[in-house]
Amino acid sequence: MLAKRIVPCLDVREGKVVKGVQFRNHEIVGDIVPLAERYAIEGADELVFYDITASAHDRVVDKSWVSRVAEKIDIPFCVAGGIKTLAQAREKLAFGADKISVNSPALSDPSLIDRLQDEFGRQCIVIGIDSYYDADSDSYKVKQFTGDEAATKDTQWYTQDWVEEVQKRGCGEIVLNVMNQDGVRQGYDLKQLSMVRAIADVPLIASGGAGTMAHFADVFLEANVDAALAASVFHKGIIDINELKQYLTTRGVAVRT
Amino acid sequence: MSQADITVIVDTGCANLNSVRYAFERLGASVVVTDDLQTIASATRVVLPGVGTAKAAMAALNGKQLVATLSQLTQPVLGVCLGMQMLTKQSQERGNAAQDCQCLGLIDTQIEQLDSHQLPLPHMGWNQITPSSHPLFANIEPGSYVYFVHSYRAPLGAHTIASCEYGETFSAAIAKDNFMGVQFHPEKSAQVGAQILTNFLKMGVTQAPLTEAQA
C-alpha cells in the first residue's frame, strides 16, 4: 500500500535553515546538511528545501548545497526557489534534486510549467501554491512572492482555478500552502485541503498549520492528502518523526516504518 | 577477478545521474559515469539510469550509438526507473509521436500506462513490494517500502521479479538473464534501497547463479 508521506520542509536563507512565523521574522534553526541527515534518519519520507528569498529577490538557490545533500541522504528531496528557466531547473536536477518546485515564476508565466514538463517529465515538476482565505469574497485566493513580505502580492487567481490550470499544463504534484495558518500550529486547513483534493488528480501535499500529531492524522484521514509537510514542529523538536509515524499507525494511517 | 571492480553508470544525458552515483559511492563502490563504449563494455557491471520520457531517453541512446553495446553486454546490467523501461521491447509513452517508442528489447515485455483506478498519478511515494527469490532481492522482506515515481509500468509476467500494487498489480522489477530493471528508485529508498544496490554489487564478482548462467 502506498504510504502517506511525512515531509519536513527546510526553509533556506543564506545557506542556513530558517523558520519564520507567517513568513516573517526568520530565525536560523541550523545547517542544511546535518538537519537533512537527521530527518532522513528519523524517518522522514522526503525533504523540501525552499530558498525563501530567491524568488522575491530575483536570485536563484546557491547550488553547492544541493549536491552536498544528494551525496549524504538516501531519500528523495525537492528544491524550490526562483526557478524560472529550464537551465535553472536542469542544474538543480543534475546536482541531485529529485524534483523542482515552482511557485511565483509559474504565476508570472504559466507556460513555464509546460516547458518544464516537456523537458523533464511531469514526475519531477512540483507546483507550490500559497493560498489564503479571503473573507471579503468568501473564497480561496493565490498569493505571489510570499518569500518577502514587502514583495508579496495578491494574484487574480482563485485557488481552485489555479489548481486546475497547473494540472492541465502538466505538473506532477501540488504543495498547497495555506498561508493564514502557517506557523501558528493550529492544524491544517481541512476544509480547503478537502476542496483541493476533490479536484486534484496528482499527488497533493498539505502545508501549513501542523502543531500536534493529531493534526497529521486529521489531514490524512479527513482531507486524504498524499503527504503532509511541516517545518517548525520538527525543527523545534515538538514532534519526533519516529513517534509521529507510530502514532499514525495506531490511527490507521499507512506510513513507512 | 584480475580486473578492478568497476561499476559503470551509463551517461544517458538524463538529469539524475548523480543521485545514482552517490548511492553507489555511499556503499563504497568504484563508480565511473561515462558514455564511452569501451569503458561500458569492460565494466564489472553496468547501471542504466533514466528519468524523463522514453522517447527522449531512447533518442539519447541512439544519438550516442550506445544501443549495440548495451545489447551485447554479458555482465550484470541494472536499469533504474526509465532505465528499466528502456530494457523492454517498447513503450506506450510516445509523447507526440504516432507510434509506440521502440526500446532495447532485452526483456520480453512492454511498457504501458499504469491503471491506477482513479488514484492520483504519477504513482509517487513509498510503496510496498513483494519480491521473488531473485538474488537482487536477497534479504529484502515482503512488504518493504521503496520509492516510486512513475506513470507507466511493465505488467506482471514471466519476467517479473518483484511486484507492487497501486490500483493494479504491476512489475516493480523485471529480469532476463543478466539484464535486470527496477521501476522504483533504489538510490532514494533508504536502507531497503541500499540493500538492493548491495545485492547488485555482489553480482559479477562471485560465482552467483547469474554468472553461471552467462558461462
Features:
heterodimer; A: 257 residues; alpha/beta; TIM Barrel; 8-stranded parallel barrel; 10 helices; 28% strand; globular; B: 215 residues; Rossmann fold; 9-stranded mixed β-sheet; 4-stranded mixed β-sheet
How are the SSEs ordered, and which strands pair?
The complex is a heterodimer of chains A (257) and B (215).
Chain A: E1 5-13, E2 16-21, E3 24-31, H1 32-42, E4 47-51, H2 64-72, E5 77-80, H3 86-94, E6 99-102, H4 104-108, H5 111-120, E7 125-134, E8 139-144, E9 153-158, H6 159-169, E10 173-178, H7 190-199, E11 204-207, H8 213-222, E12 227-230, H9 232-235, H10 241-250
Chain B: E1 7-10, H1 17-26, E2 31-34, H2 37-41, E3 45-48, H3 54-63, H4 67-71, E4 77-80, H5 82-86, E5 90-91, E6 101-102, E7 110-113, E8 123-131, E9 144-150, E10 152-153, E11 160-166, E12 168-176, E13 179-182, H6 190-202, H7 209-214
Parallel strand pairs in B: 1-2, 1-3, 3-4, 4-13, 5-7
Antiparallel strand pairs in B: 5-6, 7-10, 8-9, 8-11, 11-12, 12-13
| Count of helical regions of chain B | 7
Write down the Rg of chain B: 16 Å
CATH class of chain A: Alpha Beta
Please give the largest β-sheet of chain B: 9 strands, mixed
Query: What assembly state would you assign to the polypeptide chains in this entry?
Result: heterodimer
Total domain count of chain A: 1
CATH topology of chain B: Rossmann fold
Distance from N terminus to C terminus of chain A (CA atoms, Å) equals 13 Å
The helix count of chain A comes to: 10
Give helix and strand order of chain B, one letter per element, not per position: EHEHEHHEHEEEEEEEEEHH
Helix content of chain A: 25-40%
Q: Rough shape of chain A?
A: globular
How is the main sheet of chain A built? 8 strands, parallel, barrel
CATH-defined superfamily of chain B: Class I glutamine amidotransferase (GATase) domain
Contiguous low-pLDDT stretches of chain A (5 residues minimum) are none
